[in-house]
Amino acid sequence: MPPVMAQGGCRYCGGDLPAGRAITFCPHCGQNMTVMQCPACSAELEVDWHFCPTCGRKIETGEGAAG
Ligand SMILES: [Zn+2]
Ligand SMILES: [Zn+2]
Question: Which residues surround ligand 1, an ion (CB under 5 A)?
Answer without folding.
Answer: 10, 12-13, 15, 26, 28-29
